[in-house]
Amino acid sequence: MPTPEPATVAADLRTAMGKLARRVKQEDRIPHGQVAVLGVLDRDGAMTTSDLAADQRVRPQSMARAVGLLMEQGLVVRRAHPTDGRKSLIDLSEVGRAALKAERDRRADWLARAIDLELTAEEQRQLAHSVALMERLAAY
Fold it and tell me: How far from the centroid of its chain's Cα atoms is residue 7's Cα?
């Protein structure tokens, strides 16, 4: 079997990864935009609403509404900025941290079940090997 062209593999991989990511997100119980905000706070720590808006590429007004909804649900807390009294920082609450973990666990559980039920043992070995390859590509 000839080696496929890198451009063809790239297009197929991008399409497959997009489909898989969308399918995994269907397991979420918190809306995607809110999970994204919780995720960035978990990875990067507390930040201003403006910084969150820039990170998520939305208008500050839209992020302010999203933060308000997250605060109503007890998923984030607002605290004073340590160096600028005019600003405040948004951070994950313990409830938010637990909700985010539950979302991530639900996604991982679905994916583990799908791997177990849909792939043969050999396919599972191939997939495990491909994870390392994808990590290498991500680091390029």
Answer: 26
Alpha carbon distance 69, 140 (integer Å)? 37
* C-alpha radius of gyration, the chain, whole number: 19
Question: How far is the C-alpha of 110 from the C-alpha of 113, rounded, in Å?
Answer: 5
Specify the pTM. 0.83
Reported as a single tens digit per residue, the pLDDT across 14-50 is 999 999 999 998 999 999 899 999 999 999 999 999 9
State the number of CA atoms in the 13 A half-sphere of 49 facing the CB: 21
Q: Which of 111, 38, 115, 39 is nearest to 75 (CA)?
A: 38
pLDDT tens digits for 92-116? 999 999 999 999 999 999 999 999 9
